[in-house]
Each structure stands twice: as structure tokens, then as C-alpha cells.
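Hi there, hope your week has been kind to you so far. Thanks so much in advance, here it is.
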Amino acid sequence: MSLPSAALLPPSVACNYVALWTNDLQVELTQQPMKRGKSFTLEQDVAICNARLNIFQDPFNAVSKPQYNFWDRIYQNYVELTGDQNVRSQCSVQSRWKLIFGSCKKFHDCLARVEDKQSGLTESNKVLRANMLYFEHEKKRFAFNHCWEILQHKMKDLVPAKSPDPRTKDRDPNIHSSFSSHPPDPNTLVSPESDKDSYYIMESRKSKRPTRRRAEKEAHRRSKVVNTLDSRICDLMEQFTKQLAESDKKKAEVAERKVKVMEEMNERQQREQDDRIMSMDTSNMGPRARAYYEHRKSDIYFKTMGTLQTSPIWRTRASLTIFMPK
């Protein structure tokens, strides 16, 4: 979009004209589709995780660099590790961290479930079953194993603490004693809200589930998860064994067909060679050559006759010839 000539216009009109053209240019630039950048490399993912842990574990960063907020300091550390400030923006790095941490948290939950249910497994088997469980729930494989090696021992520290629920918020422990030991003064006005709060506090504490019952429910839920996981693994192993057997069977059939084809080709080549020898004219050959080829012709003849005599068709024709009336 080119700037029109406004040299012949009055100054006020020319200024308005340039302002309108600038606004149109900004609208045109904002309407252009943004191009997606290149995918993050493994080194960049590792640098993001290291930068996040460096700032998270260093308590002096907040004091030494108070002008930066938390993600400003993380991005500065990421640039120091990679040196690609002009390649990735802070917003891009922050979005990538959310994706990495979300996937690692889900994988951490899967691994925790496997460790709770499957005792006695090796670390490699635990990770393998956690990957299978992650694939079963997310319908895709876990793609951040390189980040998991860095974050696996810091997941509990990185998970943000849940905000307390106002409905289950702990109240003053002396409220019940004061409420029961000091009866309300009839001359004192009591608001409906205070009565309602006291009532709900008492009811919520009465309705708390016993610890034993909660533990039994949790054990029952975990046993169901273990049974489901074991059944799923058995099904996968059975499918794998069946597919392996079918593959071996197909390979054996292909090998058998190849052998049969090779035998047929050899027989065809031998017949062609025998036919060529049988049709050779030995009258112009020397004595030795004539004797050799006559001997070969005899061998071919007796071999062919022996093969024909053992065939069912030859036997049928021979029997018809014997019993046929002259």
C-alpha cells in the first residue's frame, strides 16, 4: 500500500489525509494472518525446564532483580542458556512451559497410580506401564521424556497449592466451646448470619466421614483401578502374541511359495535343456561328441518314461491299451 501524494493539499487537509492512510495501513497489517513458527527443539525444551527450576529454586533472584517479575526472570535465564532471544518470545516460552508441565503432571499421576497398585516392579517397568496408561487416557504418546528426566523429582514442588474452599475452611476452634459454655444473653441482639454460621459449622463437623471408611473406599477404588489396568495389559499382550503368530504364519507361507516357484523354474529349465538335446542332429558330429549326446538322449528318454509310468494318467492309458479289442 503506497502513500498518495499530498504535497498540493493544504497543511490541515494533508495531515488528516496522512492520518487516515496510517490507520488503513495498521488495519491492513493486523488483518494479515500470522505465520506459525518452527517447532521447539529438544534443547529448547530442556532449557525452558532448567530456567524454570533455576528461578524457582534461587531465592536471591527476587532480591537481586526486583524490577523483573517471575516470568521475566525465567525468560532472561532461558536466553542466557540458549542465546535465541530473537527466535522465541517470552509469550512463546511461557506457552511452551504450560504444555510441558501439563503433560508431565499427567504422566506423574499415571506413574503414581502404577506405583500404588504394582509393588515390586522395576523402575523401567513402572515407566513402561505409566506410558501405556498415559496413552490409554490421552490417546497419544507421552512426548516429553527428555523434560521428565529434569522435572520428575520437582513435580510436587512445582504443583501450585490449591486455594482453600470457603465451605470447608477451618474456623476458630474455640467457637464451639464459647457457644456451648456461654448461653446467649436474651438482652443481646444476635444476627441471623451468626446463628447460621454456627449451625453450619456444627453440621459440617458432625458430617465428616470417619477415617476408616474413607480408607476402605480408597482401597476399593485402587483395587478396581489395578484390576482394570491388569486386564488391559493382558488384552494388549494377547493381541500382540496373536499378531506375532499370524505374522510368522504368513512368513512361512511366503517362504513355501518361493521354494515351490524355484522348483518349477528349475524343472522348466531342465525340460528346455532336455528338449534341446533330444532335438540335436548328431550325424555331423565326431565319434566322441556323437556318443556323448546319444548317451544323454538315452538318459533323458528313460528318465521321462519312468516319470510317465508312475503318473496316474499313464497307468490309465496303459490299462485301456491292454484291454482294448483288436
